[in-house]
Amino acid sequence: MTLPSSSGLPYDDVADGEMLNGIAAGDYESFRLVHERYAGLLFTTIQKILNDPDDTEEVLQEVMNSLWHKAHLYHPRRGRPITWLASTARNRAIDRLRA
Length: 99
What we know:
Layout (H helix, E strand, L loop, with lengths): L12 H12 L3 H23 L2 H18 L10 H18 L1
Helix pairs in contact: 1-2, 2-3, 2-4, 3-4
């Protein structure tokens, strides 16, 4: 069973991995596509932890900024692209709670 992303499109590990590689190479279109596909899911992930819309928006922006600068750190052998993105969002939200 293929689950849909927040954009309604099914997760596609190969395409998502290619987009992360594109982001690592500085491709803005890849970044835009990942943002379009996953910002809603990441927002929900963060919101469940913070329960504050303003903090959630700030953390989502931090996650997306981090994605732009650290996409090269993703390695497919360690897990799915969506898992890496969601873990990054979750960890950043927890860091915000602790601060």
